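Field reference: sequence -> structure
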Amino acid sequence: MIRYMMVCFFAMSASLVAGDDVTVPVGTGANGVDGIKIAPVPCVQASVETVAKADGESPAVKVTFTKTGDERRLLALEGTLRSNPTGSKVLAVRYRLNLDQGELPRLALVAYGKDGNAWFKVAANPIATGGFQEVRLPLKSLRPAKFSRDEEAELQWDKIEKVWFGLAIDGPAKGTFEVSKALFTSEPYRPTKPLGVKCLDASLWSIGKDPAAKGEITIDAKEKCARFDFSFPGGRHMYDIPSVRMPEAELEGYKGLRFTYKAQIPKGIHGLLVMLRESDGTQYCAEPPPPASKDWKTVTIPFASFKRGGWSKDENNQLDLDQVSAISIGVHGTTTEKTGKGFIMTKDIQFVP
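Structure field:
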């Protein structure tokens, strides 16, 4: 009998290690909205009520709010965790937002530990107004709050006793925020549409180049693209690389980089140098490099095709999407021409699911 119980115990343990699905409500009830209350925050006036059948057959917690002041404040709903959300990948919130005043806010989360420590995260992109819809906040990279007892402590979900979630609001605002679901879940974050990267502003670009190389970024209003004209001497290795800044965004759930281009490059240069650059300067290059094209061409490059450049060092030798700070589309190599000249025209830069 004892042997049978031990076998069952180890079988259950193996199942948990293998990664069972996790669904933990923020409040109580199947959708995690029962028992949720307003968290007191300065400069935000809010009242809460429960509306039956607000979202189809599901009830919703409705918050009517007014925020004064220009500083960022959190319109927060508080839930007391009754289960361990370890293994969760996202906070899934089904909501409806109506704004009478103010800019679109962002979903935010604060996790409070029993030991006086706290961690937070604010979504990179604003949420939308309109009918009920779902937004997901990836749980990677929560940062310690400045008021934490120990800012070096690591987040351990089994030691979290309550969470605040809601809207990070900049500037004065007024409206209603309804929530019909608030769950921690192990279902991965899946973006539903491409994430565009602004590139039609020359001030967003910078150029890294050999001192002997020349390069200039201009915006072609007719073609609606960024144009890079370059030249450099032949007979020795050169690099001429324009880079555009990454928007504040979560890349989790995206699969690759897509952009549309035309390019004319010198003889001896075998294609475009397309790179994703991490915040510490590490550069990951697309292999194989996209070829030059006299006509507009759209290319989609999976993240798996980006390999660390041999001139770069990285602490873990892998592309960390949460550290990508810039996208580079340029050239490098040795041209057989006396002076290598060319151009690259780029538009519609996107990260795709």
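Note: Confidence is low (pLDDT under 50) at residues 1-18.
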